[in-house]
Specification:
Blueprint (H helix, E strand, L loop, with lengths): L2 H15 L4 H20 L1
Helix pairs in contact: 1-2
Keywords: Membrane, Transmembrane, Transmembrane helix
């Protein structure tokens, strides 16, 4: 699976659960990016 698809899927879920609140979406996106990059940080 492409990383962009993982981030896209994560953000889509966040957009739904965060009720389209921009600040929370940014936090969700940051969390999604962090989760994707986490294996490389260890």
């Amino acid at each position: 699976m492409m990383i962009s698809q993982v981030i896209g899927n994560s953000c889509h879920i966040c957009f739904m659960s965060c009720c389209l609140l921009i600040i929370q979406n940014v936090l969700c996106l940051s969390a999604a990016v962090y989760k994707v990059n986490q294996p490389f940080l260890d």
